[in-house]
Amino acid sequence: MKKFRLKQVPFNYTGLLLSIIGFILTLLCLVGCSSSGSRGLYFAKVTDAASSIDGSSVSVYYGWQAYCIQDQQLKCVNDRNIMKVPFDVSIVNHLNSSYPQLFTDEIEQNENLNPGAAPNPPHDPKIYPAAVLCLICSAALLVLCVLRVAWTGHYQDTHYTRGFLAWGSAMFALLLLILSSVMYQNAVTQLNLAYPHLVASQGPGMPMIGCAFTAFALAGFFLLRGCMNVDFSDTDGYNPL
User: Fold this and answer.
1) Helix, strand, or coil here: 206?
2) Could you tell me which residues come within 8 angstroms of residue 30 by beta carbon, excluding any fewer than 6 positions away?
3) pLDDT value, residue 5
4) CA distance linking residue 36 with residue 192, whole number of Å
5) What pLDDT digit, counting tens, does each position of 53-77 carry?
């Protein structure tokens, strides 16, 4: 029994550490751009291609459920209504009335050469519910990991609950990565192709949620060690085929 505990202890702590990393990264992605302090946690950014005559410029940062506008002053707004696919169209509709100079001299796109420019009905990609489910799953994972490390004698995790929760969190994180890629990467590409007076770029949000997925997947690998091992020591006289 002591030998088993010595083997499992490093994996328990490693799984706990990776679970904390994944949870924090997902939470940071969710609260990105909701306040001035989280402005840097954005998925897409739109700014002037060149400064105006007075030297001022506008920069708009978009997160999962909020955006920040840096003009004369910084203003952050929580608004999931504009977070719709195709996101480039949502950005144009959102900023065109306040900053029409960004969208002048539009370059018409050939849908045959650029399929991403084809019109699509706006729809909500449901990123926010997926993020909440990922956080709930990973929070339950964290609680069980802490119980396993702090109260080893009371909680043994004989059914590998932590490992399955970790891989469940990884699946939600992968879903978030795919949805964010479809929403933000395509929008950045289309804005740069169609509007020469702005520069659209991706932020650190995509690498962060990618790292969260990796952390959860690795945590599941460590916490599920031994799950597929079959003990044939007690076969009641029968041998496995």
Assistant:
1) helix
2) 64, 65, 128, 131, 132, 135
3) 42
4) 26
5) 455 689 999 999 999 999 889 999 9
Distance CA 46, CA 191 (A): 9
Beta strand pairing status for 59-62 and 66-70?
A: antiparallel
Tokens for 108, please give them: 């018409």
Would you tell me how many other CB atoms lie within 10 Å of the CB of residue 93? 12
pTM (two decimals): 0.86
Nearest to 222 by CA among 23, 2, 10, 20: 10
Q: In what order do the strands lie in the sheet with 44-48?
A: 74-78, 66-70, 59-62, 44-48, 198-202
Please return the burial class of 206, using the count of CB atoms within 10 Å of its CB with bins 0-12, 13-18 and 19+: middle
User: Cα 46 from chain centroid?
Assistant: 20
How far is the C-alpha of 39 from the C-alpha of 62, rounded, in Å?
9
- 133 CB-near residues (< 8 Å, 6+ apart): 172
CA-based radius of gyration for the chain: 24
| Helix ranges (DSSP H) in the chain | 2-31, 87-95, 127-150, 161-180, 186-194, 205-223
Q: Specify the higher pLDDT residue, 4 or 48.
A: 48
